[in-house]
Amino acid sequence: MLERKEMSQRSAVSPSEFDAPARKLPQYLAGLASTLGALAAGIVLAWTSPAGLVVLKVNDTEINRLSNEYNIEISPDEFSWIGSLTTLGAAAICIPIGILSDLIGRKTAMLLLVIPFIIGWSLIIWSNSIFMFYAGRFVTGLSGGAFCVTAPMYTAEIGESNIRGRLGSYFQLMLTIGILFTYALGMAVNIFWLSLIGATIPIVFFVTFFFMPETPTYYLIKGNEDAAKISLFRLRGKNYNIEPELQAQKESLAEMKRSQVSFFIAIRSKAAAKGLIIAFGLMLFQQFSGVNAIIFYAGKIFTDSGSSMSSEVATIIVGVMQCLAVFVSTMIVDRLGRRILLLISELAMCLTTLMLGVYFYMKDHAMDVSSIGWLPLVSVCLFIILFSLGFGPIPWMMMGEIFSSQIKGIAGSAACLFNWLMAFLVTKFFNNITASFGNSVTFWIFSVVCAIGLIFVFFIVPETKGKTLEQIQLELGRN
Hints:
Helix content is about 75%, strand content about 0%. It is an all-alpha fold.
């Protein structure tokens, strides 16, 4: 009630008295709080790397840490299911969470995701069978995948256009911090304690994000203009004149209502069709670059390479490089733009996977690779760094930019579903492909896909830097 009274008093005063620039700090705080869920998702994704490290060999049978510590027999194929079921869980939630966030709000939907997170981790922590691991990984994947839809949507709707790119890249930054956290902690504690600590992060997210505002866009869609004003004041500051921004959003939504058609007709519009092509293309090339295979099986890749460096240390170095790269990305994405970073990222991934393929080809054919033993670590680090500068954060960021509010929830969810299905294919069959064709051919396949992705970005993907959501829709072809 007090907030409403203050808002009414401010609205009654001439807007010229509130012409201070918008405060950035409340937007940054809300953006970071929303992406604490991505930190939790990063822990889920990277958990298989320490859990899958081979610690024993019995009669030529490799026994990983998870099997050894829980005293449960786990075959390589069963462990690949433990790794990949997370991506199936993420795929299963993508469309439902988009619908739910449109019904009850972005904030409420994100807070509810803490429940499946805790249930999933509980199944893993106190597991006594392979099927409990399966269930736990699937359920934690539900929450992790849902954050991939809701967090970019939330940050896109709370931020001004000149910092929206930076806010959007926080999602990938927190995801990579979660991955590094898991790599490092996996060296210090056993899998039980690693899982228990992972289960506390969603609770930290809940406590932090509970005090953040709902997005003004959601309130306006629901016709609650007073709540939208309160939200904007909290995000921009008390002395900021919210009226021009509020009016622009209202006019945009009003125009959409005037031309309101069913979702199935709206999705066939030129802007929506082009948005879907861009979204699905970016998600396809993001996953078929091989990034999740590298993150999930980083330890195995370094072990197979025969590197003298401990695989645990190598994965931590990769995690540090990834975090630094994403942090740099948050600084430059609104200066250099999305498109140039995507092009640089894809070119670098093409070359590094090509080099990895060459290294493994030489090693598999008994050539002397002692003089280039550094190549796998350098190639993986460069891959992760350049992926994290471009193809890591930007596709997720653009999901909140290239769709109109009319179809954003479902269209973004569909793109997310496609992304996780592709991630499942890569992570589930990575071991099968390497077993059948060898590491060299596997990485060369990734290299060819990256080359095709480079062409796709150059000819299809537009620049969205510094443009309002309305301008982006007009550029995509909306009348």
